[in-house]
Each structure stands twice: as structure tokens, then as C-alpha cells.
Write a structure and sequence with these properties.
284 residues; eight-stranded mixed beta sheet; 38% helix; 11 helices
């Protein structure tokens, strides 16, 4: 059954000159963003603030997670010129915090880790003063692939747990709760000063006890930055929304996360993995 959005999701959609600038910059570079591909509800806000989250390795995912709007299908070969175009766009937009994610590429031997590494290097060369955050897939848990990314020392390494253990096999059938925790723990042990970040969607059908258990598991894995947001079904065929969590409850979850030891927390109905990422990294 389709659920109506509650009143706290209703807000005017406004754009300014920076929205157009972001749109044109991305188009010139032939670049994809998770903002558009995943139908993020914050796209107009973020682009009007002059920022976007780059999505590398094409726009076709080799997995079919039931919460996600990114299309599946046969992916194209990696584009060797893409990292340079990402860096050029980041420089043109004068980003101080560059967020790079990707579709999942289980078809590639390294899962696309080399493309992440190349993008980090290109951004650092083009914008020496910027910080870099990566939001990666699980690379099938392969530590050599993870090491390729981590050895470039991104300022933030992000991999989302997405949901609680009980729902993983239905919501993320090609992923694994324990594998994701191992990815995060591996990143934490090779931290080298970087922050390790993860996120959960609430409203998929989890209980409060299950959500609390997932937070404890993330802390045990060494995660220090956390995002919590409301799940919204991107299409009629997606996993259905089980409930809408009120803003006050998200505030309570933020307090609980702080009690568990998370250093920085962004929690709210419209929070997404890279939403206001510069602020959560800088503590603002």
C-alpha cells in the first residue's frame, strides 16, 4: 500500500543560479550523480548550495537492492577519463569537500576500487585544499580491493550498512550484514587519521531494538560518523515504507548514537549518506 508523505516532508522546491551552474557543469563533464540516479529528495537543496555527489563507473548497477532507484543492467567498461572529469568539475564548482560514490561493479576484478583511487588522486591534484570522502560498495569483502582505496587516504571512508540484520537478505539480497561490518572494521584498522562513516535507513520494518543493535554493531566495527534517515520508496515496485519516523524520534536516535560513542551524527527524515557531508566532516 502506498503511504502518503507526512507533513514534515513538505517543503517548497527552490532553485537559484548555483543549481543551473551545477547542472551545466555535470552535463559538460558527462558525469553521473547519485543525487539524480537515486532520486534523492535533497537534490534541489544541494545543487542550489553548489554541491553534488559524483557517481563514478557508470549508471548501471550489477546489483538490484530493493530500496534503490539506481537502474540495474549490463554496465559499460570503466572510462579512464572519468577521474579527470570529476576533478575538473569539483574544481569548477570550488568544492571544499568532494564526495565520490559509485554503482556496484561486481563484474570488475577489483570491484572498481582502482577507479576510486584514481578519482581521489585526480581531485587532490586539482583541489589540493579540498577534503575527499568516498562512499563505496562492499567490493565483495575483498581486502586487497579495499586497500587500494584506503591506501589513497580519503579523509572519510563511508560504506552504508543500510538496514538491520533481519532485513538484509530481503532488502539487499546480494549484500551481507556481516560483510559490510567487516568492510567497516577493515577500514577502521587502517584508518591512518581518516574517519569511518556509515548509515542506516529507518522505516523499512525494523524494530527499535533491532536498530539499536545495528548502532552497537557499527560502533564495535569502529564507525565514528553516522547518518540516520527515513527510507522513502523510490518506485512503486521498491521495498515498501513500513512506517514514517517523526523528527522528534530522529532527535532521540541522535542522542542515543552519541551515548554509544559516535563522534558525529546527522539524524533526520531527509538525511542521506552524503547530505551536508562537509558539515558532518567539519563538525558544523
Amino acid at each position: 500500500m502506498e503511504r502518503r508523505l507526512p507533513p514534515w516532508f513538505r517543503r517548497p522546491v527552490r532553485t537559484d543560479a548555483r543549481y543551473g551552474r551545477v547542472t551545466r557543469t555535470l552535463a559538460r563533464g558527462g558525469l553521473h550523480t547519485v543525487c539524480r540516479s537515486a532520486r534523492c529528495p535533497n537534490r534541489h537543496e544541494c545543487w542550489s548550495a553548489g554541491t553534488a555527489t559524483f557517481m563514478i563507473l557508470g549508471d548501471a548497477c550489477t546489483r538490484r537492492c530493493r530500496f534503490c532507484a539506481v537502474p540495474g543492467g549490463p554496465p559499460a567498461p570503466p572510462d579512464p577519463g572519468e577521474p579527470a572529469r570529476v576533478a575538473a568539475a569539483a574544481r569548477e564548482l570550488r568544492l571544499r569537500h568532494v564526495v565520490i560514490t559509485s554503482v556496484t561493479r561486481d563484474d570488475l576484478p577489483d570491484g572498481g576500487a582502482g577507479a576510486f583511487a584514481a578519482a581521489i588522486r585526480a581531485v587532490r591534484a586539482a583541489l589540493p585544499g579540498a577534503t575527499v570522502e568516498v562512499l563505496t560498495p562492499d567490493f565483495q569483502g575483498l581486502e586487497p580491493a579495499l586497500a587500494i582505496v584506503l591506501d589513497e587516504s580519503p579523509d572519510v571512508f563511508n560504506h552504508n550498512l543500510e538496514t538491520v540484520r533481519r532485513l538484509q537478505s530481503e532488502v539487499r539480497p546480494q549484500a551481507s550484514y556481516d560483510r559490510s561490518l567487516r568492510v567497516l572494521a577493515f577500514a577502521a584498522t587502517r584508518r591512518g587519521g581518516r574517519a569511518v562513516k556509515s548509515g542506516l535507513m529507518l522505516g523499512l520494518g525494523e524494530t527499535d531494538g533491532e536498530a539499536d543493535g545495528a548502532l552497537k554493531d557499527l560502533r564495535a566495527a569502529g564507525v565514528s560518523f553516522l547518518t540516520l534517515g527515513q527510507y522513502l520508496a523510490p518506485t512503486r515496485s521498491s521495498w515498501p515504507v513500513a512506517r514514517f519516523i517523526e523528527p522528534e524520534a530522529f532527535d532521540a536516535w541522535a542522542r542515543r548514537a552519541k551515548e554509544l560513542g559516535f563522534g558525529r551524527v546527522e539524524s533526520g527524515p531527509l538525511v542521506r549518506s552524503s547530505y551536508r557531508a562537509a558539515g558532518i566532516f567539519g563538525g558544523g
